[in-house]
Amino acid sequence: MNCEILCVGTELLLGDIINTNAAFLSKELAALGINVFRQTTVGDNAERLKKCLKDALDNNDMVITSGGLGPTYDDLTKETAAALFGTDLVLDEASLTHIEHFFSKTGRKLTDSIKKQAYLPKGAQALPNDCGTAPGIFLEKNGKVLIMLPGPPKELETMFLAYAVPKLSGLTGRTSVSHTLHIFGIGESTAENMLKKMMTEMTNPTVAPYAKTGQVEVRVTAFADSTEQAEDMTRPVINEIIRIIGREYVYGMDIGGLQEALVRRLEKAGLKIATAESLTGGMISKMITEVSGASGVIECGVCSYSNRIKHEILGVSEETLESYTEYSPQTAEEMAEGVRKLSGADIGISTTGIAGPGGGTDEKPVGLVYVGVSSRMGTFSKKLDLSRGLKNERELIRELASLHALSLALKETEKIMAKAKKVKKIIFLI
User: Fold this and answer.
1) pTM metric for this prediction
2) Is the pLDDT of residue 427 over 50?
């Protein structure tokens, strides 16, 4: 089944909004075994939209649109689709009830322009919007499938996964199961080289890597007649990937990221963490507290940019700062130990280094970072060279340093759990 993604919105053409919807839909459709033939972006112009939509339907089995379902005059997607299919727009009572309920809760006035969102092409099915007002639309006619989704990414992603995917699974006649392994510590090209044979030779399940900043995700997707069969097909492939990559690099499966893996592991172990950050300036604490439940595992975060704070609050000795400077393993270790003792946490994590663009020397260049870790298992530090030789890489260095800190904190948590015999040697499902 071939599909075209048609994204609607002049703001996309002007570059005012980054089109994340196309990337999300392409990734999810691939997992369903649906081939994305083309991606198109068109502005809020009725004639151009009609031309693009007709062309997409003529050349594909399915078209998925994003945007143009709202209440304003330039939201034209469903009107254009109805005209193209030669059908009228009719009121969907369930959608209207949802919109009325939404507005009654917020105390806002329900206008006629808002109500127009509840009108759908005749014969279409509404896809509920759990995060907004405009319903999505599923229309199957003349051997073609048209799915219209709202533009805001949160609305689109929630709607697609909850309501469109079940319909698409029914159309393909097959059930798919996907699992994503999360990897940190090796690059995408290295992971791809290690998994090349699986990626090129396997057709069901399929293996596909995706790169993120400092991380790699490997998605395993299987197709079968039932969810249970597809699930069984993924298990040996997942275990083989873990064996090839190495357990020390695979930190979880189907989990949001390093910060979520860390929070969940700390929760399971009944442990707490505290952070002392210099060059990352609170970024590690921010990443941890983005995860629901973080309040139960993080004690405090100290942003200790100045040496005075390192000394007076964290207890880094003046001798250490004078003899080794703030950019040293000794300082990182004393920072980590200091924040652990200050907070009473089980694990202290610290960062210090040179993010640039200035401040580097031949001896201590930009990108030099030390991450300190302290727990009842001991105190240690890790030296990192995070410069990629790029211009304006300050934020990249800070983000990479934060990820390394999260990874080391995760490994320290696992060490404590292993000693307490609360965790198996290999965990791939979190």
Assistant:
1) 0.81
2) no
